[in-house]
Every structure is written in structure tokens, then in C-alpha cells.
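ok so I'm stuck.
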Amino acid sequence: MIVTMVVISVVILAIGYFTYGRMITRKLELDDSKPTPACEMNDGVDYAPVSASMLLGQHFSAIAAAGPIVGPILAALWFGWLPALLWIVLGAIFIGGVHDFTSLTASVRHKAASMGEIVKQYMSPTSQKLFLSFVWLALVYVIIAFTDITAQTFKAVSQEGEAFGPGVAVSSLVYIMLGVLMGVALHRFKMKLWVATAIFIPAILIVMWFGTMLPESWVTRISAIPVKGWEVLLLVYCFAASLVPMWLLLQPRGYLGGWFLYLTLAAGIVGVLFGGYEIKYPAFNLDGLKSADSARMVFPILFITVACGACSGFHGIVSGGTTSRQLRKETDARVIGYGAMILEAVVAVLALATVMMLAKGDPMLKSDPNYVYANGLAVYMRDIFGIRYGVVLAFALLAFSTFVYDTLDVSTRLARYVLQELMGWKSLASSFVATGITLSLPLLFLLTTKEKGYLVAWPIFGTSNQLLASLTLLAISVWLVRTGRKAWFTVVPMVFMMAMTLWSLVLQIRPLFRHLTTGEGALKTDTAISGIVGSVLLVLAIWLLVEAYRVLVVRRKSA
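replied:
not stuck anymore, here's the structure
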């Protein structure tokens, strides 16, 4: 039974939070008597302390996005659900949660500094430039992957030919507008959070329902917009959203997105608990496991495919870029850092359940991961409560797109911070320039690749994301060691993730080098992109490792 596997997984994750998470709390010595940067440097724009409940929703929706849905579903389809499930549960407790918690704490302890600044302080200026370059490239790939996935959602069509995408697109636009209105209500008119919640959550549900009732003329016109057109519009949105004050859009929209996550979590849990569904999909996909294709090797590809559901370097950037600037007290770091990662693992487990309920050979398995996920939730609500399948499907697709919105504008804002820090730009004009440069690469990639370009970007996205996590753990380990503390709980996961991701990079750049050395066949765009970007990331990672070795070993010996 699916319910048995899900309950066991959630119980193990909860035990991990209350035991291993508490142990990490003691190691980091959190202290509420120390004022956080959000309180000390409150300017209402980049630094703004908020309650743990609101920040958890914003942080959770920013880090969760499509990663813990798309990654686990792809991994289950390729390798079977059991390898993916084991990695999600164990990875979240011992690697992902530790990474998120420690990166948030490190940033708070250094006046909400980015991880790049921490690298500079404890390693070297060269290390900082290398790290920031890696972070910026990783964020560009986040924007590429999630922009394309969202655009595909706006073109979603059911197996019966009914267009759900236009309704999701319209609902998404109104959702953003409601987020702005909520920001104004909270910030300008000092509306209580519970009042705003009571107003805007029902408003979004009404908007969702309206999206399923669009006139046929609207559906026809919106359906005519191509995927590439949606991608351009989404990048325009990213440009604007990354520059406006956080209180106006990022905070309220993130809070509302958190509620969407909670509602979809609730729908998934209810469906699993009361649906009585049997496991139909195989625990091990023998066809995938026996594949001679190096891109389907369970070691290391499983670990970079599941990505955000178990561990994500992107989380550390969010923690040290926006979340640390809003943390009201230090002890909130455990709930928001470690706790949000555990919740994300629950999302990943529930996403796996939507695959487990399908028999191998089911036509639904050929659909995009977002549609597989939405289908699972729609089946749950139809079978248990008799709610019309189309309504829940539209809600699930809208929820999926809102997750991605949160990640898109946060990623663009963070990439802007990183590029400004890397170049030493501090003027207001540089914010616009840095944002424009950041978004130009996703625009070029998406306009020159075939549709569903996210499938091209996903392996490099997953690898760069996981490698970034290992580099962040490396920087945190250096900080802990140089300040006289034990670092085994960050060093061990760092070594494991470093091994898996470097191995994966070698596999992904090998086809390009094989072509260049032997001249076999025509050079595909996909191969060129993966090979070039992978080579750059590999060089940056190895260079950073050398810098860390010099700091921890060579300098210590010379001292």
C-alpha cells in the first residue's frame, strides 16, 4: 500500500527533525539574545524582520518550487520509486537539512552576508570570485529550467484534449496581482496578517475556480501563445519582480505560495491516507537500471536527478540572500532552515506517490512530470470527495506554477546580488544592468533550443545545484574549523556530494570531448551546451577545492 510507505517516510523525517536537527542546533549554539541582521539593519527593503510563520511560508515556497516534484518523478521513472525514496529521506535528514540550517546560521552570524563573503573571509578573495562565478552560473540554470517548465504548464492539455493551460496562465497573473495588493495592505495600511490571510487565501481559490471557467474565446486566444512567447513574458516578469521592494511582492506572494504548498500537501496526504491506492509502479525500473546510457546510471545520476527533494545548493543561496535578512531571532533558523527542508522532502515523497499509483505502461507516464503530479492530486480528490477532476487538475497546475514563480523571481534577485558582488557594483543603475545580464543567458538558451528545453537543462541544473551544495558545505566546514569548532557533520555530507556531482559532470562533458577528439557524428546543440557549461563548472569546483586545501592544510603547516 502507498499509505504504508508514505507514513513510514514521514515518521522517519519527523524523527530526523527532532533528533538530528536538535543536535545540529546545539552544535551551532543558537542564541536569541543576539540581535539578528534583520533587526539591526532594518530598512524595509532588503532587511525586514518578519514572524517565523510568515518567513517559513516564504522560504518554503522559494526553495520548494518544481524541484521536489519534477526531480523525484523523473528519478522514479528512470530507476524505480525505491531508490528515489531512500535518497529523499536519508538525504534530507543528513545532508539537505544540515546544508540549509548551517548556511542560514552562517549568514546570520556574519550580518546576513552571502556565502561568497564568508568564503572571502575564511578562505581567500580568489576563492570568493570562483564561488560567486559558480553560484551565478547555477542560478542562471535554475532560471532556465523553471522558466521552461512554467511555460509548458501554460500549454497543458488533458489526455482528452481539454486545454487547462490558459486557465492556469490567467489565474497565475491574477495571483501575482493579489500578492501585490496584499503587500500594500500589510505594509502601507498595516493590516493584520491573519486578516490579510482570511481575505487573500479565499480570493486566490476564487481566482483558481474562475480559471477553470474561462470563455471559449479566451481559451482560444491564450492557447495561440507559443511556449517561446510565454518564456519571454516570464523573463520580463522576473526582471520586474527582482527589482521591486521585497515587501511589495516577494514576501506576500511567497507567503501565499506557502499556503498553496500547504494545501497541496494536505490534498496529497488525504489522498494517500484515505484513497487506499496500491503500489503499481515497480520499486526498481530494471530497464533503466540496466541501461548502457551513462546518463541513466543510478550512481551518480540518481542523486543529481532527485535534486531539491533531498539536497539543493540553491537553498543555501536563498538562506544567505533573502531569508537571513528577514530572520527575527536566531532560534527561528532551525524551523526555517532544517524544518523547511524536511517539509520539502515530504513534498517529494508525495510526488513519488503520484508515480507509484500508476502501472508501468500507463499513458500518463509519458506526460510531463508536472502533469503526472497534478493528475495524482486530481484523482485523489475525485475518488475521495467527488470533486470534478478538471477543477482539481487546474488547481494543482496553478499551485505548481506558483511554486515556480517564487523560485524564478527569488533566483533572479539573488543572481543580481551575486553579479553585483562579483563585479563590485553598488549603484541603483547597476541593479538593472546586473538583472539584464543575468536574464540574457536564459533568453538566449530558451530561444535557441527545442521545446521542453528543461530536459536538456535538467542534468546540468541538477549537477550544478548539488555541486553548489557541496561547495557551500565546504565553505561552512572551513568556517567551523577556523573558528575552533568541530565540523564532521558538514564535512561528511560534503565529501559524499562532491564525489557524486564531480562524477556526474565528467559523464556529461565526456560526449563533447569524444566528438572533438574523434569527430564522430554531428555535434548536437544539447551536447555542446552540456559539455561547455559542465567543463566550466568542473574547473571552478576543482579550483575551489585546491583553494580550500591551501587554507586548511598548507597554511596550517606553514604556521
